[in-house]
Amino acid sequence: MKRFVTLCLFGLLCIFSNAQTPRSIDVPLLETDQEKENYLKQLVKNKRNLIGQPASEVYKALKADGFPIRHMSTSTVGPWSQPDGIEYMTGVICFDKTIKEIEATNTAFLVTIELGLWVNDVDFWQNLPKHNWMEYIQKRTGNDIIQDISYVKMRLH
Fold it and tell me: What is the pTM assigned to this prediction?
């Protein structure tokens, strides 16, 4: 009986040690524009699951589902619309391509994540490190609350 229990436990140990966890699974990147657009349509359709959550949740979702974040920017209001003449950051924009890729292909998907923040945009950009600045943006905005998510396929002509 002891051998049977030992063999069962050893078998379970072997199974669990080979089980893939979410961190160990390599998700292939969405490659085609059609794959990306279909994914973003679903993301926006189901955005109610992310609204009210910290921005880190949408960053995790994009990464886990294979949407490439290759460039980031900020969404802003002002300065012309603000009494103090300052441009304020209200959210972030994630691009699926680098600036060079956008210039070469004249297209990109932009995912706009409106957050519950109101930060001087110039100060925000001046405080970014030269290296790993996109990771810094994600870390800096990770706790800010998602108010809306939208996307657009940008075409330059």
Answer: 0.78
